[in-house]
Amino acid sequence: MKIRAGVLLAGLAALALAGNVVPARAQDLSDHAVKSFMEYAWSLTPQQFSKPDGTVIVIDKTKKDQVLVPLDVAREVIKAGRLSAHAQICDLRDDQILNHRAMMRREEVKQKWTPQQMVYISQLHLTTVMLLTGRIRLVEKQGDKEVVVVDEKNEPAVTCTDEQRKKVKELITAYVAASPPVSAVAKLYGNDKYKAPPAAAQGAPTATGSTSVSDTGAEKKK
């Protein structure tokens, strides 16, 4: 999967983690940039996804139009991913989990998306986090950009200030408070059946094969 040079990088610049932490709506992405993020996330979406309860969701990669979500929804997911990326850099692990779960609840209560689309939504969030935290990089190759997974052992640690950490925590707290509560989603499934979605994985996503994501955020290939 290759993405034209400049398109995704322009989007990344708009979401840059360097410097100030900004509210989710303060920096809007262009439609072109959102589409680039969506294409990239699609290329990394697994063909199979194993839920914590053992249920396997199969994604037909030949039916892309049936899995992708509308542009406005994708934009909000990317913004939530930006907040999660800030939380990861600031070592706010619990807040990162809460942010991801709140984003998933927002989409679940709509009762509009198939299980395959919910997997894609989570993958778009994860892809955004990994791009913005440097776990995935795009490198130049014959005029195009292609993905390179970064070896964390060879990368310098990225930190944030106490002020940035406080701001990130405040933004996530506000985002979670404005999201549907767990009880609202539980009613859709029955209180005895609903389980909160797993946290966004920290490992590198794979474009093929089967993936299982645990609630600890560790992604494992089967």
Description:
With 222 residues, this protein is α+β, with helices and mostly antiparallel strands. The protein has one domain (2-208). It has helices at 7-14, 31-44, 71-89, 93-108, 115-132, 162-177, 182-189; strands at 2-4, 48-50, 56-58, 136-141, 144-149, 210-213, 219-221. The strands form 2 sheets. The chain has a 4-stranded mixed beta sheet with strand order 3-2-6-7, with helices on one face. A 3-stranded antiparallel beta sheet has the order 1-5-4. A hairpin with a 2-residue loop joins strand 4 (136-141) and strand 5 (144-149).
Give a topology summary.
Elements: E1 2-4, H1 7-14, H2 31-44, E2 48-50, E3 56-58, H3 71-89, H4 93-108, H5 115-132, E4 136-141, E5 144-149, H6 162-177, H7 182-189, E6 210-213, E7 219-221
Parallel strand pairs: 2-6
Antiparallel strand pairs: 1-5, 2-3, 4-5, 6-7
Helix pairs in contact: 1-2, 2-3, 2-5, 3-4, 3-5, 3-6, 4-5, 4-6
List keywords for this structure.
single chain; 222 residues; alpha+beta; four-stranded mixed sheet; globular; disordered N terminus; disordered C terminus
